[in-house]
Every structure is written in structure tokens, then in C-alpha cells.
């Protein structure tokens, strides 16, 4: 005869396994698969694996009732925290996408008097930022190209250096300016 605790363990572990399968199906077969979806598959799989491990340890140490409690606790934590984590990651990804679009808007302006003025204004802002944050000339060039909307590989081509060198310059610019990414850099530069 199967006890209630065994049924509870199987139900909770099965719920986490099903959630993992649903996340995998959305990520691999959905129309809008992205990094967040793939990360959530990993998070659900980790929650499922940890739940199974916790149930086995609790069953060996304290019995089937303790395994049922461990499965219930793990299931409650996973179903409450993982959707919040997905939402937080999607918000961060959306902010990065907005920063990318804003950076590329600067470079996609049509060539006219207004865009020449905008380019001059951008160069003056970069020069001001370079003086304020003690950037080297090369770091100022990297900053200007990033603000124009260039990718790392485009910056590397323009400056005739490797992409890794550009990444090193970008890390130093971020550190000197006290920013965490392109969105922070754009906010600070456009202030």
C-alpha cells in the first residue's frame, strides 16, 4: 500500500518536472525563443533536480513524511521565485534592447545639417566626458564610436585593433565612468 507521503512526493516532484517540460517546450518550440527562455529551462531543471536530491536525502534521514515536506517546500519556492526571476531577467533584457535601439538611433540620422550638428554635439559630449572621467584618447575614441551606435566589431575595424582590445577599452571606460552597461553609459552621456 502506497502512503500519502509517497503520493505527495511524486505529485510535487511531478509538478516541477512538468513545469520544466513546459519551459523547455516554450523555449525550443515557441515563436519567440530568447536567452531568458533558455535560462528558465535551466532554472526549472535545477529546481527539479534539487527537489529530487532533497527528497532522497530527507527520506534517508527522516523518512517519507520528511521527504514529502521537502518536496512541498521546494515546489512552493520554485513556483513563487522562478516566475519572479524570469520577469526580472526579461525587464533587464528589455532595458538592454532599448539602450541598443537608442544608441543606433544616433547613428541612423540622415546626413544633413542637423546630423552634422548632432555629430559635433556628440563629439563635444565625448570630449567633455573624457576630461571629466580622465579617459585616455583611445578610450575617448571607443566611447565616441559606441555612442554613434557602432558594435564592438565595427569599433575594432574603425580603430584597427582586435575585438578583445575593444572589450578591454570598454571595460575600462565603464569602470572609470562608474556605469554597468550600455544603458547606464547612454544615460550618463546624454545628461
UniProtKB/TrEMBL annotation:
<dbReference type="GO" id="GO:0003677">
    <property type="term" value="F:DNA binding"/>
</dbReference>
<keyword id="KW-0812">Transmembrane</keyword>
<keyword id="KW-0238">DNA-binding</keyword>
<keyword id="KW-1133">Transmembrane helix</keyword>
<keyword id="KW-0472">Membrane</keyword>
<feature type="transmembrane region" description="Helical">
    <location>
        <begin position="6"/>
        <end position="29"/>
    </location>
</feature>
<feature type="domain" description="HTH luxR-type">
    <location>
        <begin position="128"/>
        <end position="191"/>
    </location>
</feature>
<dbReference type="GO" id="GO:0006355">
    <property type="term" value="P:regulation of DNA-templated transcription"/>
</dbReference>
<protein>
    <submittedName>
        <fullName>LuxR family transcriptional regulator</fullName>
    </submittedName>
</protein>
<dbReference type="InterPro" id="IPR016032">
    <property type="entry name" value="Sig_transdc_resp-reg_C-effctor"/>
</dbReference>
<feature type="transmembrane region" description="Helical">
    <location>
        <begin position="65"/>
        <end position="86"/>
    </location>
</feature>
<dbReference type="InterPro" id="IPR036388">
    <property type="entry name" value="WH-like_DNA-bd_sf"/>
</dbReference>
<keyword id="KW-0805">Transcription regulation</keyword>
<dbReference type="InterPro" id="IPR000792">
    <property type="entry name" value="Tscrpt_reg_LuxR_C"/>
</dbReference>
<dbReference type="Pfam" id="PF00196">
    <property type="entry name" value="GerE"/>
</dbReference>
<feature type="transmembrane region" description="Helical">
    <location>
        <begin position="41"/>
        <end position="59"/>
    </location>
</feature>
<keyword id="KW-0804">Transcription</keyword>
